[in-house]
Amino acid sequence: MPALDPTALTRLTDEIRRDIDHGDYDGVNIIVARHGDIAVHETLGYAERATNAALRPDSVFRILSMSKAFTNTLAYRALGEGKLALSTRVVDIIPEFFGTDVFRSVRKDRINLHHLLTHRSGMPATPNPGLGPDRFGVLADVIDALCSVDVVNEPGTTLNYAPSINHALMGEMVRRAYGYDHFRDLARDLVFEPLGMTRTAFGMPAAWRADAVPLKAYVPDNGWLSPADIENLNDTITEAAEIPWVGAVSTAEDIFAFAEMFRRKGEVNGQHLVAPVVVDQATTLQTGDMPNDLYAGIAASRGWETPPGNFGLGFSLSGTGPHASFFGPFTSPRTFGNYGAGSSLFWVDPELDMTFVFLSAGCMDEGDNVARFQKLSTMAAAAAL
User: Which has the higher per-residue pLDDT, 135 or 105?
Assistant: First the structure.
């Protein structure tokens, strides 16, 4: 057993069982490890409670915005390999993004890769990248639509978590930088295969679809994301879909392998998939004390203290203070990770040398989700001896 309190770990899994019994979500695959050694690897609850469908340790989840972590990693590789720079503007790689003679923005040409990675592009913070969900899976159509979408804020001046647009642009930038025909193939070749992530893909392979965990939305109709916004992705994420912001599928074991690579500062099998200097900057605060407008709004609706945005280059960071957060106030300040709306989370605490992976069936209201993960992240960190 790694240096983790077994009583505290039992308390953690018992709390998750209580949450499931209470109906907060349907089930979960969870991994907790320290120094790379797994102490908890549990499958609890259902893949879908309504049908009594079983959850398995190798169940494939549609991981929603956790997909962004894979797109970020492609950008990290491009940065370390000299194919892109943080100062590279979107229009340097996607010149048509600036617009046409009919529609041309005076500020879109200022948006660079650093803005995209830190959610400060000034583009609209919408789950809709500018076209119907039946076309979300065609990246070329998405980019074409974004050429007619204008900024709403001066690039670099505000931090507003972008559900779709930033990572659609980033995905197309790395695809063009590497000269690939398909974004999904780029992710497979540069991230998934080198890490041995055999049950991870952008798009849902047909062979996995029948027994994949369905997206079920336990959210209000008037929330930030509607039930339809979430559940429509069951059909939108097809085998051919290329959705860099929300279109990946994966398992708890594969996410653990991905997180462990970053715990080891980019190393896998004796080689560095991502350069250590890039990992260092990706896990260093880039956004000062700027609040994240989206989560500031969620906090205000619940009477919570306004949280700082705490973004590195793509990674969300723990920071300090008692504000409500996914990682809780007892992980170290440079704890980093990513999450999927109402459902999924991974984090790595570099001081505790600890890794936490949690993929859940059933999407919660985002405020409830923050509260859930604050509780469970604190309980996991409290197990460290």
Answer: 135
